[in-house]
Specification:
single chain, 236 residues, alpha/beta, Rossmann fold, seven-stranded mixed beta sheet, four-stranded antiparallel beta sheet, 7 helices, 11 strands, binds S-adenosylmethionine
Length: 236
C-alpha cells in the first residue's frame, strides 16, 4: 500500500488545515512595513493546496508554487488554474528563476529529517532568491511534539470519518502521524523536531541572516519554550 503523506489527505486537507498559511499575509505586511521591502515576486515552497498564493495573486503579486505531493498540486491547480504550480522537491527543484520572497508555511520544513538534505534545501532556497530577498518559514520545536503530539484525533469530512494517531520519540526527535481512513487505507507522516538553534546553524551555514523570530502570528518573540518558531530571514 502506498502510504505517502498527503496522497489521501490532500482531498480532505482544506477543511481542517487549509487556513493556517493565510496567517503569512500578516508576516508579509510586517516585512513590508518594518523593512520597507517590496515583494514583487513570491515563491511558496511546499505550497500544499495553494491557498496562500491565491490570496497573494489577488493582491497582484507575481506568484509561483511548488510542492512534492502531486495530489496537493492537482487540488491547487483545480482551485486556482490561473496560478503556476509545479510538482517538485524543495531540496532539488530548479525553477530557473529568482524571486524576491520565498515562503514555506506550516511546519513543512519539519518533513525534512536529514541534516544533509536540510542543508541542501537551504542552498536551493538561497539560489532561488534575489540578493535583496526574504525567506519566511516556521518550524515545530521539540516542545510542541513533547506536549501535544500524542493520542488520537477524530475527524469527519463530508460524512466520512478518519482518525489521526500521533506519537513522538523524544530521543530521535521523530514525530509520526498515521491517518486511518474509513476504507482501511493508511497514510504516514514523519517529521523531525528542530530547535531555534538547529535552524540557526542551517541558516548561518547557508548565508542567511535572521531578522526576527516569533512564536506566533501576534509577533511575540520566540524563546526556548516556544512550541513553534516563525523565522523572518534574508540573504546576508
Ligand atoms: C502541512 S502541509 C503545508 C501546506 C501549505 N504550506 C499550507 O500551509 O497549507 C506540508 C506540505 O509540505 C509538502 N512537502 C513535504 N516535503 C516536501 C518537500 N521535500 N518538497 C516540497 N514539498 C514538501 C507536503 O506535500 C505538504 O503539502
Amino acid at each position: 500500500m502506498d502510504i505517502r503523506p498527503y496522497k489521501r489527505l490532500a482531498a480532505l486537507y482544506d477543511k481542517d488545515w487549509g487556513g493556517y498559511c493565510l496567517q503569512y499575509l500578516k508576516l508579509i505586511d510586517y516585512i513590508i512595513e518594518k523593512y520597507k521591502f517590496v515583494p514583487k515576486s513570491i515563491l511558496d515552497i511546499a505550497c500544499g493546496t495553494g491557498n496562500l498564493l491565491a490570496k497573494l495573486y489577488d493582491q497582484k503579486y507575481n506568484v509561483i508554487g511548488i510542492d512534492v505531493t502531486p495530489e496537493m498540486i492537482e487540488i491547487a491547480k483545480n482551485k486556482y488554474p490561473y496560478i503556476k504550480f509545479h510538482i517538485g522537491d524543495m531540496c532539488y527543484v530548479d525553477l530557473k528563476t529568482k524571486v524576491n520572497l520565498i515562503t514555506c508555511a506550516f511546519d513543512s520544513l519539519n518533513y525534512i529529517r536529514d541534516d544533509n538534505k536540510m542543508d541542501k534545501t537551504f542552498k536551493n532556497i538561497y539560489k532561488h532568491l534575489h540578493p535583496d530577498g526574504f525567506f519566511l518559514f516556521d518550524i515545530n520545536t521539540p516542545i510542541l511534539f513533547e506536549n501535544r503530539h500524542y493520542g488520537i484525533i477524530n475527524h469527519e469530512y463530508k460524512g466520512k470519518k478518519f482518525e489521526q494517531i500521533l506519537t513522538y520519540n523524544r530521543k530521535s526527535k521523530i514525530a509520526k502521524t498515521v491517518f486511518h481512513f474509513e476504507n482501511g487505507e493508511l497514510e504516514e507522516h514523519i517529521q523531525k523536531a528542530y530547535t531555534r538553534d538547529n535552524m540557526k546553524t542551517f541558516l548561518m551555514k547557508n548565508k542567511f541572516k535572521i531578522m526576527d523570530t516569533f512564536e506566533d502570528f501576534d509577533f511575540n518573540i520566540a524563546n526556548k519554550y516556544s512550541s513553534r518558531i516563525i523565522f523572518i530571514t534574508c540573504k546576508k
